[in-house]
């Protein structure tokens, strides 16, 4: 497999908060070290969807990068989300992340204002021009709107940028993914846990996984088995995770699910920030049951 500046198994890490809702940097350091040293992850993605990036301030995002980079050192790659609907703001976040010690940038397509493909391409290229860090594009039309979904032509165009190296693929469009994989050198990462194995089977490099927060070794085990040539074993491992993936990603936002499981286990994470609401007892019980069912 080609080398990647973004690792192979990346946890889409939650952002821990105190019970009062403040950023909990000691908890972030402990969680980062756990995910890397015991959780099977060689990369951490901060301030993404699972990291509740819409509700954290610029200062909190920068402080989180600095704390996590210090906690994991050279044991893992630290990638952080800097994409917003404002190009200038995204550039400022990218430069702050670089100063704080990030190893790479995750840049979502701009949302709400519904820019066309030319505007999206210019926005992403401008952010990539802002630092020397490698960039992972974040294609997630379910959250940014179908109008700003990256087209195959736009992805091929951006692949020519020297710092655009990868795509976090949440488009759930296998034809587009296969088209770009076959015509560019972009490294693809599954951003939907149910597609980790299917995308690896057609050439994706790895995954950015929400489920890895609570089941990192099992997530890694799927791709390890596949890469070792044990395709039947990889399929069995993947199917065993489906109840957990379904419970965590279909019944509630990922950040809410992870924090509920952490709270049930007595681990730091704290509550989600509004407008998200904590899981109630019934949902927490369903999540815990799915975790036991998937991990045995």
TrEMBL record:
Record key words, sorted: Amino-acid biosynthesis, Cytoplasm, Diaminopimelate biosynthesis, Lyase, Lysine biosynthesis, Schiff base
Annotated site residue numbers, Part of a proton relay during catalysis: 49, 112
Compartments (UniProt record): Cytoplasm
Enzyme Commission number(s): 4.3.3.7
InterPro entries: Aldolase_TIM, DapA, DapA-like, Schiff_base-form_aldolases_CS
Annotated binding of pyruvate, by residue: 50, 208
Principal localisation: cytoplasm
Gene Ontology CC terms, in alphabetical order: cytosol
Role: Catalyzes the condensation of (S)-aspartate-beta-semialdehyde [(S)-ASA] and pyruvate to 4-hydroxy-tetrahydrodipicolinate (HTPA).
Classification via HAMAP family: DapA (MF_00418)
Subunit-structure text: Homotetramer; dimer of dimers.
Family: Belongs to the DapA family.
Protein name according to UniProt: 4-hydroxy-tetrahydrodipicolinate synthase
Organism of derivation: Streptomyces carminius
Lineage of the species this protein comes from: Bacteria, Bacillati, Actinomycetota, Actinomycetes, Kitasatosporales
Protein's gene: dapA
